[in-house]
Amino acid sequence: MTSAKVDKGQDGRPVAATADAAASGEGYQRALGARQIQMIAIGGAIGTGLFLGAGKAIAKAGPSLILAYAIAGLVIFFIMRALGELLMYRPVSGSFSEYAREFVGPFAGFVTGWTYWLFWVVTGITEVTAAAQYMTYWFDIAQWVSALIFTVILYGVNLISVKLFGELEFWFSMVKVTAIVGMILICAGILTLGFSDAGDTASVTHLWSDGGFFPHGISGTLMTLQIVMFAFLAVELVGVTAGESKDPKTVLPKAINTVPWRIAVFYVGALIMILSVVPWTEFEPGISPFVAAFQKMGLGVGAAIVNFVVLTAALSSCNSGMYSTGRMLRDLALNGQGPKFFTRLTKSGTPLVGTTFSAALMLVGVWINYQWPGDAFTYVVSFATISGMWAWIMILVCQIRYRFLADRGALPQSTFRAPGAPYTSIFALAFIGMVIVMMAVDKDARISLYCAPLWALILGVSYLVLKARNPENKAFAKR
Asked: Which of 438, 54, 442, 60 is nearest to 216 (CA)?
């Protein structure tokens, strides 16, 4: 494992402890139980990408969006099983950057850690933007005001304890899951019993009769892939919880194996029901399809309830973002690839400085909502997608490298091998490559590709500066 130069951090612990220290999650409390990990895994895939972003995707692809979610969901399962194989080989708190350091090199670990941190900062901005939009359903309040209030509240929650974070996420996820299942049952009742304003026209034929299953052609479906992939970002969050899980060897595989049915029910199933009850042509970009569906049904109270649920979903994702950013910064600091002060923990075991720094940057979302309240969601979604997919790319590359070494006896075999690997991992990499190409074609998503080279330049220069200032630091040495 990689070692770093020994020094003292503000918490009094050796900052440059070896990667073993980072791997063990020294200083963290293993307070996340099985039910909390399971609900974090379930809830991680249910956020604004489904509740808000799907409105724009429906307008672009029509019913074929269902197929896009199904195929992308299969790719996500391949990614999660690749991550599971790595986690059972070595469960670590800063999993993605740790694996990148071990199987690709120190620079890859540096880039992965900082990029995943950036992903959650940007995602936090995305989610607080969505939450602010949902508030306008009830109140005539400026988006930036709501964004500011939510950011401050969630920051306070994250400084208390990881146990409270896990409990809050459990109930956030429970609300989301209950709401989606309830809506599926209501739509099924409308289709079979014909009640509500949509009862007379509801029919599964809406999936192909209003311009066909591909109303805008295959190209229209492909152009929604970046929105679809954004919806699945955060499923890998269970990897970050490894260092604070009470029993990672048992809990994490169970959480990962729930991915297929999560996608089948919450994405494919929900969209089939919604688009059968209400024709896809009646949905508009920027409006939650769940809220719009209840309004079309004439169930005004139901629309208000769903709006509350999607508000909960957005706040849940933002809460997860604050959780993961502090851990990622501390992992980088423990490995000598970030400022030493990020190692500081509170008495309850939460990364104080890292969380505070990340929350402060999330306040940029308040300014974005003030400047561009109408376009804020589109801007941050595209940039979050490209930065989040980097973590997936590293997971797949590291799993391919690990399997190569394990099969030759250089490393112990994982107890949770990914089925079909490395071929499934190669397929997933190719699919992600296609999504990036589609983002380059889409003028709305292209902004993220403009920002990526700038971020890469910043990371490259920062890495060289850190390496020059710490020439004896083994965190920058090749294995």
From this structure: 60
Q: Determine contact, residues 86/414, Cβ cutoff 8 Å.
A: yes
pLDDT band for position 415 (cuts 50, 70, 90): very high
Distance CA 168, CA 164 (A): 6
SS (H, E, C) 69-118: HHHHHHHHHHHHHHHHHHHHHCCCCCHHHHHHHHHCCHHHHHHHHHHHHH
pTM of the predicted model, to two decimals?
A: 0.85
- 105 within 8 A of 345, measured Cβ to Cβ: no
**Bridge partners, 8 (sequence order):** 14
Q: What is the H or E stretch that residue 227 is in?
A: helix 225-232
329 closest CA partner among 22, 84, 29: 22
What pLDDT score was predicted for residue 25?
45
Contact 14, 8 (CB under 8 A): yes
- The pLDDT tens digits for 352-373 are 899 999 988 888 766 766 676 6
- ∠ CA 4-7-13, nearest 5°, is 100
Helical residues (DSSP H) of 335-445, grouped into ranges: 352-362, 364-371, 376-407, 423-441
Euclidean distance between CA atoms 278 and 298, whole angstroms: 12
The backbone torsions φ and ψ at residue 245, rounded to the nearest 5 degrees and listed phi first, read -90, 140
Domains of the chain, first to last: 19-469 (1.20.1740.10)
What is the Cα gyration radius of the chain? 22
Chain segment 438-455, per-residue pLDDT in tens: 888 877 677 777 778 888
Q: 453, 457, 448: which is closest to 122 by C-alpha?
A: 448
Q: What is the pLDDT of residues 46-74, one digit of tens each?
A: 766 677 678 888 988 999 999 999 999 99
CA distance 178 to 14: 45
Average pLDDT for 379-385: 67
pLDDT value for 13: 38
Cβ atoms of 135 and 148 closer than 8 Å? no
Q: What is the dihedral of CA 382, 386, 392, 394, to 10 degrees?
A: -170
The greatest distance separating any two alpha carbons of the chain, rounded to the nearest whole angstrom, comes to: 74
| Secondary structure class of 32 (helix, strand, coil) | strand
The predicted pLDDT at position 473 comes to 72
Examine residue 412 and say whether the peptide bond preceding it is cis (omega within 30 degrees of 0): no
Residues 256, 417: Cα–Cα separation, whole Å: 12
Residue 152: pLDDT over 60:
yes
